[in-house]
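Exercise 7. Predict the joint structure of the components listed below.
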Amino acid sequence: DAGVIQSPRHEVTEMGQEVTLRCKPISGHNSLFWYRQTMMRGLELLIYFNNNVPIDDSGMPEDRFSAKMPNASFSTLKIQPSEPRDSAVYFCASRGQSNTGELFFGEGSRLTVL
Amino acid sequence: AQSVAQPEDQVNVAEGNPLTVKCTYSVSGNPYLFWYVQYPNRGLQFLLKYITGDNLVKGSYGFEAEFNKSQTSFHLKKPSALVSDSALYFCAVRGSNDYKLSFGAGTTVTVRA
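Solution:
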C-alpha cells in the first residue's frame, strides 16, 4: 500500500497568491482529515470528511481556506489569498471504516508564505 | 470537551535505559487512546492504541503503554531505549462516540549514545 500521498511536499509562495494542497487517501478509507502543524499551536484539525462529505469544518481558520473532496481518492485544501501566518506544515490523514481505527498520515506539505 | 496533556516538553535518556513519556487525558465517555511518533520532516506514524481490554498495550518498535483509568493516564514506555528512538512523540485521545482526535503538544525524546 502506498499510504497517504500528499503534494507538493514543499511550497514557497508570495503573500496574496493562491495555494492548493493535494491529498490521495489510502484506498478503501472513508474518512479524511486535514491538520495543520505549527510550533505555536501544535496539531490543529482543520476539516473532516466522511464518505466525501464535509462533516466538520469548524477548524478552518477563515474564509480564505476551503477544502473539497470530489471523490473517494482525492482531496484539496486551498488557501486564497495566502498570508505569511498561513506558513505551516499541512497534513492529510485517512482512516478506514472501523470506528476504532487509527489515522494514517501523509508526509505533509510544508508551506512558506513570504 | 476532550484534551490531552503531555507534561514534559523534553525527555532525555541514555541508550539502554528505560524510556517513559507521560500522557494524561480528559474525555467524555470511553476513551480511545493513541500514540504517534514523528521524525524530522516526516508525517506522524502510528505506534499503538488502547480501545478496550488489557490495560497494557504493546505496539511497534518495542513500545508499550499502560492505560490507567483512575489516573486518566496513558504513559508510553520502552524498557531499553535506542538512539534511533529520538523523535517527537504525540499522545492523542477521542471519545468512543466521537471522530475528532485531539493531540497533545508533543514530547521530544532524545536518546544519547
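Discussion. The first strand of chain A starts at residue 5 and ends at 7.
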